[in-house]
Amino acid sequence: GGPRRLLLVSNSTLHGGGYLGHCQQHIQSFLGQKVKRVLFIPYALHDRDAYARTAREKFESLGYGLDSIHESCDPVEAVRKSEAIFIGGGNTFRLLKALYDNSLIHEIRKRVLEDGIPYMGSSAGTNVATVSINTTNDMPIVYPPSLQALGLVPFNINPHYLDPDVKSTHMGETREERIRQYHEEPNTPPVLGLREGAMLLVEGDKATLQGVTGARLFLRGKKPTEHEPGTDFSFLLIDSNPL
Which principal EC class is assigned to this enzyme (predicted)? Predict the structure, then answer.
């Protein structure tokens, strides 16, 4: 096997563009020419058939075949045979529960971390690539057996990170305050707030921020820091705070 290769995208659709339009060049560069078919995991949305159609259309336009895992009679075997995995966005709780229900957590980890097949996630698919889904924005509409996720990286991500709106009269917590509350709990890992249009490319022990927007990094007990595209986040891959 090779080193882990991950493309963790904040969002599937950017304002003014189509499905995965803002990151399609990143996808082609990431998957390259060796990959012929992508295994799509549509568990985050209820209508899996429609979701698979949308994803298939996009990936075929980029030159890749796409198989949706929900059409397979043996999801575990589908993961074992896959050349690359893409998990799309939707509800993170629904997604993680389905991954547990289908006994896929261990299988995906093994394929990505041991066999080195490319893993791409967007939104909820990015959330489940991390330590846990504690920093998702979604409502817990179903109850997964654990909040522990795939653990392909030793930190958490908050996709669709939103900066406080200075003009807003809304008095609820900002995203930053919610992440700070998470870090009030002991032994909580770093959280990378990925804005719309941002993505993290992980190749082995190297992690780089890509896309058109920046990210905000939250470390427990420290002030958050602001980072531009091109930032080297490799230090986050050193598991200094094991759960």
Answer: hydrolase
